[in-house]
Amino acid sequence: MPINWSALGRQPQTYGLLLGTAFGCGLLVILAGNRPVAWLGGGAVATVMTGSWVTAYRSSSSGVQDDSDLLNAATFQRRIEAIHAQVARDGYQTWQPVKAWALQSQTFAMGICDRESTLRTELLEALHTVVELAQQVADGLQVQAQIQTPTYQQMAKRQLKQSCDRMEQTYKQLQQLQDQVALASLSQGDASLPQRLETLIAANKEILET
Predict the structure, then answer these.
(1) Alpha-carbon torsion 133, 130, 170, 74, what sign?
(2) Mean pLDDT across the stretch 175-187?
(3) What is the CB neighbour count within 10 angstroms for residue 80?
(4) SS3 helix, strand, coil % of the chain, rounded to 5?
């Protein structure tokens, strides 16, 4: 990973290191005398210390991950895998198709964005609702496992089914939108695409708010 020198220069520790290194080199020259070996030794120590700081900064910077860009496949998968970890094994039969629909929805959204970058904002919002729907399914599975009363079990199952069905519909609608964008690229474009995305987002939010 290349070093971000401007970011490195903004770190207060960088200036502390440089001042400390300069002081150490000066002290070494004073104690050892103004001789070439003192200058060479001090320079070597300064180089090693500075190099270690730069390398450590580069390593720590490379570990920083941006989890806000859901149009990045790795970012989106991390979010879904975090939700997957909350699902008990006995809920996998319900969860696995939902997980697959979510991941495919992200793939379709990337395909749409590649062809029509002006829809990026709407696509990001749509993917946020996909993540929230996935979380709603995981929460629903947990609640369903805890409820014992038959009446409330039926209510929990019904709400869970609504979330799963909405995720499937989102997957299908984004697939259709991807095909429509591809087809529109061969003609004069399709001005209705933003409105269709807004409709999809609104339908997802309606389920999330119930």
Answers:
(1) negative
(2) 81
(3) 21
(4) 80, 0, 20
Structure tokens at 124: 């990001």
What is the chain's Cα-based Rg? 27
Structural tokens at position 50:
């500075």
pLDDT at 153 > cutoff 60: yes
> Measured between alpha carbons, how far is 21 from 34 in angstroms, rounded to an integer?
17
| DSSP codes, 57-89 | HHHHHHT----S-TTSHHHHHHHHHHHHTTS-G
Q: What is the pLDDT of residue 54?
A: 57
Distance CA 204, CA 127 (A): 10
Query: From residue 187, how far is each of 142, 194, 197 by CA, in Å?
Result: 48, 17, 20
Is the pTM for the entire model greater than 0.70? no
Neighbours of 196 (CB within 10 A): 17
Residue 150: predicted pLDDT: 86
